Amino acid sequence: MPKAPAAMLSPLDGQFGPQFPGQFDFTLLFEHIMFTIVPSCCAVLAIPFYVKTALHQAKKCRPGLLLWLKLSIALALLGVSATSLGLWQQASFRSSTALAAAAMALLSSICVLAFVYITHVYTIRPSSFLSLLLTITALLEIAATRSYFRRPGLHTIGTMHACSLVFKFALVALEEVSKRALLCTEALRSSTASETLAGFWNRTIFGWFFATMIFAFKNELTTENLPDIEEELEVRSVYERFVPKWNAVNKTSKFGLLMALFWTMPWPIIKVIPGRLMFVGLQFSQPFLLFQVVSAVRNGTTTEISSGLVGATALVFTGIAFTRVFYEHTSYRLLTLVRGILVVAIYEKMQRLPTEKLQKLAAITLMTADVAAVEAMLRLLYEVWAALLLASLGIWALSLFVGAACFLMLIPGFISVVISHFLGKAMMRARKAWNEEMESRIAATSNILAQIKSVKAMGLAHQMLEYLQGKRRKEIEVSLSDRRARVILFGSLAFGYVLAPTLVLAGALFRTRASNPMSTAEVFTVLTIVNVTSEPFNTLLTSFTFWSGGFASMQRIQEFLCTEEVQDMRVIAAAAADDKNSGFDEKKTDPASRPGLASPFAVQFSQVTVNSEVMGPILKEVSFGIPWGSLAMFWGSINCGKSTLLKSALGEVQLDSGVVSVGTKDIAYCSQESWLINSTVRKTVTGVLDFISEWYHEVITACCLDIDVAAFAGGDSFLVGSGGCNLSGGQKQRLSLARAVYAQTDIMVIDDVLSALDPATARAVFANLFGSDGLVRRWNCTVVMTTNQLNFVEYADMSFRMHKGGRVEQQQTVSTEKISPSDAVYDQEKQRTEIKVSDGDETASAKGKAEPSPEAALPSVKLAADDNLALRIAKQKRSSGDWSLYRYFFTAVNTSVVIFFICWCAASAIIQASPQIYVKIWYSRNGRDRLYFIGYVLFSAAMVFFNSMNGLIFFYFVVPKSSEGLHFTLAETTLFATTQYLGHTDSGELLNRFSQDMSLTSQQLPLYFIHFLHIMFAMLIDIGVIAAGSKYLSPIVILILAALYGVQYFYLRTPRQLRLLELESSSALITHFSETTSGIHCIRSFGWKKEFLDQLYEALAKSQRPFYLLFCGQRWLTVVLDLMSAATGTILVLMSFRVPGTTSDSSIGLALFTLVGFAGLASDVIRAWTTLETSLGAVSRIKDFAANTPLEKDSSASQIEAEWPNAGRLEFDGISVNYETKDGSIQKALDNISFTIQPGDKVGISGRTGSGKSSMFMTVLRMTEFEGTLRIDGRDSKTVDREILRQRITTLTQDGVELRGSLRFNVYPFGGTKPDDETIMATLQSLGLEEQVVGHGGLDGDMLDMRFSVSQKQLFFLARGILHHQTMKTRIILMDEATSAMDSDANTNLQELFDERFANCTVLQISHRSDSFRAADLHVKLDSGRVVGVERK
């Protein structure tokens, strides 16, 4: 093309321009200022920050060849800049700023040289500023070089600039090279994350993550082979910054937590803004680009201008790809930090809350659902202001084409704000109510899972299934308010989408452009501006609803963090001994000789009073002092305040008056209800302390656990199960006691922990630990103990009797020879030579793997094999999708309803695209005919109707049925799983399915599904529209579709696996939260809060990795699809100019209009599909759980009489229960037992822990597989349905069942006819509980509010058993340590009550107390699973 004036130097180059008049070029003055001086100034301004880094940071990287290459190129760049300055000095023509620009370029090159050296040597992360500076200036120099070559006399300078841009691109490439091998230390080389070492462009396109995706495509991802995340995302340091900010904010403000988060991370929050602004700018440029392209296609143009438009298209769409991924990635990094902060904040607050409040406040729901809602809210926070900005720019741009009609855009905006206001409030209320119902369901589920063995033993599985399903149905009913709001939202979004273009077109057609009709280019530009501008209004509308839900969740978290904490009112009388943990094998000296212990008392009460609002004084003016090294024992009747006194010593009780003084706040505590974490025996004993072999084995032996450990499958590596579910009551108490002894604290507080032990074992443990030569006596530990076994009181240094009404009376100590280990009536040597099956007979799962009998109705299951199978199936589905999951998700929904919904969704997508297609037809025929506008309005109205109905059908007829069906499957599988499986499965994993998985399937997954389905159909339609934009574009579109398929095929394997890893790691968090909640007394008393917080940090770090890397994978997909969209747009524009006649202005206008949204739509489709697929991991977990969990099946069960059993005769004929030990040999929990129990017999069953007592009960209830025959009233029990069998027997389990809900529900949770109120109150009165119940709300009062002591709970469970017997007319009563917490007098009275209430019944009672068998007709003695004695009176 002729260069005419551009071939000669012109004074016009001395003008700012920016465009050279009449040419497709910039003026030199503009280029010098904007392309050289401005970037150079940025480099100069940045140099002080880099110098500061060099002065204050140690060297982190060795030079190596990489640095010398960088410096060589930087020096070459410096030489080129110096040469350019000299050439400009000699040039015959130059602008007024030419020399200044050349000098600044030279100064910038010097800065670049410094940047290269400092960032290489003193920083680990390559400089983003340097890479961005070099890239931008190199791109600008391309334009400058072109200008110089177009001007005579400046070709040499142009050559220098060409060399300069080559050197800059070379430096950019070298900055992308990893420095890992050059890092100074091996620790840095091994611990530094790949993202940290990646260059700027590598991080931008997520090239560093590509290696992980390739690995995931070929292999299985695990937590061990996941790449590390950056140190900046480490939660501990960020949380430490959060704490002072949270303490300083105004907590009465609704935005207190939000402000604390902002001041904790101001830079990460602000860092998102620049990228978002650049993205808005590039979005806004799209309508103008469309106008220029359509005008050029219609009117024709020069090759130079068409090439410029092709380049502009590529630049705009590529810029959108890079700016989008930048701002999204920075925002998701922020969300990762926020998640970590909130989880830690919730957990740390848990550690300081009173137990009663902690049980009522569902911290797990806060940690899962509420934190997720806050994350969604924060994501939308950036969209609100960006939407307002883009809308303002859009209205201004519209005014250029339609004049005053642009203000009609404000009408849908105003409507959006009004709808958002009311809809937001409604959704906030609805989501809050929904979350509360979900919290109630999860809490009820957690409560049942913690007692699942007792629930099954009592025949409550069906009732608990209906109870949980009722909770689920109520939750779904409450959620309909939220669903209704979402249907209105769908309609509002569609209404806002069509209202804006309809109003603007109407205003232009009939008013502002009535005399000057718009051209095709103008109408599609207007529609594009309206589309880009109205999208923020829809975002604003959407954001208000999500903001309301997220803000409600943030309010709940803030309220939780502001909950009143437990007040430790104790006074430290003197500092604890410094040598407390100095060595486990070291005996401590007399406390009087230890410095710092000024007080003679380890524990001292001075006029302490604790009152109950209902029951009056629990402790009344109690005063006593326990000297250091003493054994003090407290005893008394039921509900006399023993546990309250001990908790007062622990600082867990609010005192009404008086002072409690202790020598140290680190106290080893053993509660009556043993608290055990789901870990190995060894870890349970050592707790957070280091393992010291000699001391550990000494403690194990002293607590008589060595025999049990030897019999465990795996020894002390045996998992105790959640809450110790794999152990008997005696084993749990001894493990709890062993943990307290192992800690070797100066003070121990023990709450009747020997109650579940047989007399011989209890005496041996007591002698080994507290006897005159006992282990605890070695370091002069002060022991404060409550007991109901008065035979031990005589060996105490001090004894106190507690009376009802709060009085504590010190008893005269009888001078008695102290008990010693050698005095214990316990033949330990005999026990060691004859390894028995341990207390796992109390639960079938404790022995590891059961060897089923040939006649077993249950499936033959070995736990390890099952777990491996389930894990293998899950792993296979990590990498490849499972289409059956979609069918499984809709199993409970009528197939015709699902098909109708999908068809309606497709029709809705077609209708959505119809208005734009209609405009193309309209303007192709006659753009001046206004009657066509009627058709546009009708299509727009149809779109609103179809979208609204789409949401209505899905949320009202599909989702509720699906949600209820999935929950039923999950609950049924859990409640009817085998006892062995439940014993070996972490309750946290089970609870995670009811919590996180059900939350996903009911809240997120439905939204993901309907969103994906709608935009998938929309994308297919858009592809057709784009392909119609040019005759030769169809083959390219096919290639793009193939590329899209290839990308998603390669990509999906990674997020599927990462999502499953996130769910699995979340289970560990939930377990840790649950265990902390149940054991907070022990954690606080031992002084282990910090250690448990460290464990949370560790679990959270494992959870953060898949959480963050999942976001990284999504950003990789975003940038790849955006770049593909950029390629599509560039090819479309290129073909429009290079192949004339292949398109029309209306076709290219519609195609580009569609392409503006298609760039994001294609990304959204695969992201939505990916999100849907990864979220289906929750459905997959439920499906696999239901398919692979071994269930109790009764294939041979037959019909039985309504009155069976009507006599109560039990015949044990060759009963054997086998368990496999750690060496693979088979041991007998019960070994060929044969005896008969006559109708009406009262049978006492005794034996040491592990002798087979509870295995006998489990055999009667068919909770374990057994060989032989058990006949009940002449009928083989294996022919009776398990649930019916258990319902026809009254069972009082060792731990009882305490359910969330009213006392009425708890006292009789069984099905069928309920006892009337008079019967219930009479039964409670007979057990001395009436006053307590009436004073705390009566039968309709909450069970938690009753505040029963452990002894009172046992009485309550006895009342339940009596009511069940009376109502069901049962003839067989099973009682497993039902009175273990009672004192001797109370036990005697209860035995008399049993004789009265259970007259003519066959009663089997397990007890370690001989006085429980006074009225027994038959006494069965067990030892090592064998009957060693049957005595009949």
Characteristic terms for this protein:
elongated, disordered N terminus, six-stranded mixed sheet, 1433 residues, 9% strand, alpha/beta, 44 helices
Please sum up the structure shown.
Helix content is 60%, strand content 9%. The protein is α/β, with parallel strands linked by helices and 1433 residues long.
How would you characterize the overall build of this protein?
This protein is an alpha/beta fold and 1433 residues long. Strands 6-7-8-4-9-10 form a 6-stranded mixed beta sheet, with helices on both faces. It has a 6-stranded mixed beta sheet with strand order 17-18-19-14-20-21, sandwiched between helices. Helix 44 links the parallel strand 18 (1372-1376) and strand 19 (1402-1406). Helix 4 packs antiparallel against helix 5, helix 14 runs antiparallel to helix 16 (363-402) and helix 28 (863-879) runs antiparallel to helix 34 (1034-1078). It is elongated, with a radius of gyration of 39 Å. 53% of the residues are buried. Residues 1-8, 575-597 and 821-879 have low confidence and may be disordered.
